[in-house]
Design goal:
The chain is an all-beta fold. The protein has one domain: Galactose-binding domain-like (Jelly Rolls). Helix content is 3%, strand content 42%. The chain is built from one helix and eleven strands; from the N terminus they run H-E-E-E-E-E-E-E-E-E-E-E. The strands form three sheets. Strands 3, 4, 6, 7 and 9 form a five-stranded antiparallel beta sheet that branches. A four-stranded antiparallel beta sheet has the order 1-11-5-8. A two-stranded antiparallel sheet has the order 2-10. A hairpin with an 8-residue loop joins strand 6 and strand 7. The two termini are 21 Å apart.
C-alpha cells in the first residue's frame, strides 16, 4: 500500500532558499535525477509581471559547468496580479538539472522546490532536514 502514496514514489528537495526582491537571475542547486524519470520545479514570485519566467537546464556534469536549456522547458509569466506561481515538468535526457528563475521585474522569489518523480525503486526518502511529511492512506475521519 505504501507505493500508492505520493511520498513513497517521489522525492521533494528544496533546490534554492527564498530570495529577497531583485532583478538578477536565480539558479537553483543542481539536482541529480539518477533513478527518477523526471523532475518538476515549482516556485512563486511576489510579482506577476512580464519578463518573469522559469526554465530548466540540463548537463552531464554534476557541477553544472555546461548547463544548456531544455527545449520547451520555459514557463513564461503572465501580466498583472500580485503573485505568480510557476511549475515546469521535464523528463531530461541528461542526469543533472537545475531551474533558472528570470526576474524581469523586481520580485522576491519563494523557495524553489524540485519534485523528482517516476522512481525506479521505492520507497523514497525526502530530505528530512528540510521537509517534514506525514503519510495518510485511507484513514477514517477524526481528529487531525
Amino acid at each position: 500500500m505504501g507505493g500508492r502514496n505520493f511520498f513513497s514514489n517521489n522525492k521533494l528537495v528544496i533546490a534554492k532558499v527564498a530570495t529577497v526582491a531583485g532583478t538578477s537571475a536565480i539558479n537553483s542547486d543542481v539536482i541529480d535525477t539518477a533513478g527518477f524519470r523526471g523532475v518538476v520545479f515549482l516556485t512563486t514570485l511576489a510579482v506577476n509581471a512580464a519578463g518573469n519566467n522559469i526554465k530548466v537546464q540540463q548537463d552531464t556534469d554534476s557541477g553544472g559547468g555546461t548547463m544548456a536549456d531544455i527545449a520547451g522547458g520555459l514557463v513564461a509569466s503572465g501580466t498583472g496580479g500580485t503573485v505568480m506561481s510557476m511549475a515546469c515538468s521535464v523528463e531530461p535526457t541528461k542526469r543533472y538539472v537545475r531551474c533558472v528563475v528570470t526576474r524581469g521585474t523586481s520580485s522576491a522569489c519563494a523557495e524553489i522546490w524540485a519534485i523528482l518523480f517516476g522512481a525506479d525503486l521505492g520507497p523514497i526518502n525526502s530530505d528530512a532536514t528540510t521537509l517534514t511529511t506525514e503519510q495518510h492512506v485511507r484513514k477514517a475521519e477524526g481528529t487531525a
